[in-house]
Amino acid sequence: MERDGSGGARRALGRLLEAVLASRGEANAVFDILAVLQSEDQEEIQDAVRTCSRLFGALLEREELFVGHLPPEDTVMAGSQGATRKYKVWMRHRYQSCCNRLVELLAHPSFQVKELALGALLRFVQLEGTHPLEKPKWEGNYLFPHQLFKSVVGGLLSPEGDRSLLLSQFREYLEHDDIRYHTMRAAADTVHRVADGRPEVPVTFWNNAFTLLSAVSLPRRESGVSSFYVKRAELSDKWKVTHLKEHRRAFQLMWLSFLKHKLPLSVCKKVLVIMHESILPHLAQPSIMIDFLTRAYDIGGAISLLALNGLFILIHKHNLEYPDFYRKLYGLLDPSVFHVKYRARFFHLADLFLSSSLLPAYLVAAFTKRLARLALTAPPEALLMVLPFICNLLRRHPACRVLVHRPQGPELDADPYDPGEEDPAKSRALESSLWELQALQRHYHPEVSKAASVINQVLSVPEVSIAPLLELTAFEIFEQDLSKKGPEAVPLEFIPAQGLLGRRDDLCAQHFTLS
Fold first, then answer.
1. Which of 300, 354, 368, 384 has an alpha carbon within 20 to 30 A of 325's alpha carbon?
2. Cα-Cα-Cα-Cα dihedral of 220, 224, 227, 232, to 10°?
3. Could you read off the pLDDT of 346-377 as tens digits, one per residue?
4. What is the DSSP code (8-state) at residue 362?
5. 3-class DSSP state of 41
6. Half-sphere exposure at residue 325, Cβ-oriented, CA atoms within 13 angstroms
7. What is the spatial distance between Cα 465 and Cα 384, in angstroms, rounded to a whole number?
8. Sorting pLDDT into bands at 50, 70 and 90, what band is 167?
9. What is the pTM of this model?
10. CA distance 317 to 315
11. What is d(CA 458, CA 509) in angstroms, rounded to the nearest whole number?
């Protein structure tokens, strides 16, 4: 096909499109249209994608593509079958070639090309759903272009490059219940195929997969399953896609197929951040996440902190029995806990876990003593949260108040508490005292000193809410200090200074001048 610039190519493609749609005798012009899809010019490819979308969209609506299991092209062309059947089979093969090329274009360097290709493919999905290219097995059978849609999802989850921008465009289609349902099933198959077929899976694939999976959100009620991308005359209760229960099963299978593999730590952190809000509430069986969460909790560091949220839900709502839970929670208390990104979340959950009045005194005393010891080197913004936290523990558990009322306690160099002991039951915290809080009463920051001095009085019955203090930062403390009104100006000299170098008769002004 001769082309003269992008405008000439667009006009030439328009003429070819009109010729193919007007007469079957011009069907070979499809080859010229498909050839432009292979062009290296970005604008020509975009024109060709638009032309293919219009061409095969019209052929699908006119039902001029072969319906049923597609036979080999050579066999049909060499046979004695009718011209109409040969045309439909031949054109169906061209349609298949077009779809394959559009899937390849999802990896094109130009985002405009990728966006157009994705739009064309999803338009074909919608038209194929309305005008199926397969015969129904029985009356009322639910038909959906599974193979085409699976290839689209496979292109979005390519391990070859970052697809985050394209996935953000695809996200709007997930509002449709049928697209969301088939996305979950296709994503599970794609993860299984890629992860099990490679000795080492690139991080880009896991990032792409997480971006897609985390975009899936299920409705809360059965009545929410009513929006379909592929228009249907009526919905049948026999179709799985119309039931929220089946959506939950597909959602669960999708996440299980993803989480059963060894994920990079960066991806694992992202999963744990959304686990309690976006994953667990939608699972058909939330308890199946026990293995993943306990493995993550055993890793240590920030991963363990993030796993706490999911474990909290399983323990309190699904009766999870986790041996040595408090021992491992105790082990997470180290100096770094005041500096990690998820400090606020950790202390919020720790406050919940230590809220029960049924906890043994030795356990609460161990946590109280460990926090007090760590407070000696903590920054002021953390201390303003930790000190009320410690006081709340003493309010909840009166048996631990012996830590602040031990007049005959041992000297500091004979403190029985063992900070290196991993088991809180063996730390001997209940035999010690909170001398650390008395030391913090001489802290350089007046607000910290004031907070530490609370233990000098009788502790009030109502607890102090630490929620406003969880995300307190050094910048906020600095701003608060600047906004405080100081005392009136104190006169420092009887005769006020005049000028930068003092008065005229001063020695400095006699020998120096500003010019």
1. 384
2. 130
3. 898 888 888 888 889 999 999 999 999 999 99
4. H
5. coil
6. 17
7. 12
8. very high
9. 0.79
10. 6
11. 61
